[in-house]
Design goal:
Elements (H helix, E strand, L loop, with lengths): L23 E5 L7 E5 L21 E10 L9 E7 L2 E8 L3 E7 L3 E8 L10 E7 L4 E7 L3 E10 L7 E7 L6 E6 L4 E7 L1 E8 L6 E7 L3 E7 L3 H26 L1
Parallel strand pairs: 3-9, 10-16
Antiparallel strand pairs: 1-2, 3-6, 4-5, 4-7, 7-8, 10-13, 11-12, 11-14, 14-15
């Protein structure tokens, strides 16, 4: 007849009511699911006093989740990433992306978990990122800050004679120079430090030696041996005793001959 005969609220998924025999429309509204209406015909009833159990499936309301991926070192991302989204601990979406922004529609008011993993092409650069975003009730922007891996770098510094040399090493990231590492190498020519993965300018300074400079890529633990070559002043000092000795010998020979 178009008149409401029963209504109520329920939380546990079960609503029970008594209604007269006849044809009905059932309307269900929810803040978490899409509203739904279905018709219930008297054909479902076999007699006038039957208890009828009717199962209704509600469709989720979906809200946009915009995921922005950034490098903590403020360097443009390299390679691609695997994005995994879970809902209530269950896998919901897995996709490979090669851009810094990704959008996915997730069910409203469900607990959402996010995992971002580097693919094989950049697995040596980035760490795996994971977090629990909690429940999402509206369009959400989320920024995931990805950390780069850290590697242990060992330096052995020698001169052209194979002798250990004390030196100062400077590593400057080529893409973001604010990431600079300074390593002091002791008299035994040994120095070690932990460095963020990436491409670097390597500079080595030793007193009395020419500056050493090169470009290196750090994507694993490694040991590097570097040879420093003496400056002109060092060479002069190195051979001064020889010159003096030759001079003395010449003088002695000259005196003896005279």
């Amino acid at each position: 007849t178009g008149k409401s005969v029963s209504e109520g609220y329920f939380r546990e998924g079960v609503f029970e009511t008594q209604i007269p025999y006849g044809d009905y429309m059932i309307f269900i509204s929810s803040t978490k699911y899409l509203n739904k209406s279905i018709s219930l015909s008297s054909e479902f009833f076999t007699n006038y006093t039957e208890t009828l159990i009717y199962r209704i499936t509600l469709d989720n309301i979906f809200v946009p989740l915009n995921i922005y991926i950034k490098d903590r070192a403020n360097i443009p991302l390299k390679g691609s990433f695997v994005i995994e989204v879970s809902v209530l601990g269950r896998p919901y979406l897995r996709q490979i992306v090669n851009q810094s922004m990704f959008r996915v529609d997730v069910p409203k008011d469900y607990n959402i978990s996010l995992k971002i993993s580097p693919t094989e092409d950049n697995a040596k650069l980035y760490q795996i990122y994971s977090t629990d975003l909690g429940s999402i009730s509206k369009e959400t922007n989320y920024t995931a800050i990805i950390n780069r891996k850290i590697y242990r770098i060992t330096f052995n510094i020698y001169n052209d004679l194979g002798q250990p040399v004390a030196a100062q090493i400077i590593l400057t990231n080529r893409e973001n120079p604010t990431y600079t590492y300074e390593i002091t190498v002791s008299q035994d020519g040994f120095g070690v430090t932990n460095v963020m993965a990436g491409d670097y300018i390597l500079e080595v300074y030793g007193s009395g030696y020419n500056k050493y400079e090169s470009f290196i890529s750090i994507v694993e633990d490694s040991t590097r041996s570097i040879t420093l070559y003496p400056s002109i002043s060092t060479l002069l000092l190195r051979f001064t005793p020889l010159f003096i000795g030759i001079g003395v010998i010449g003088i002695v020979i000259g005196i003896a001959w005279w």
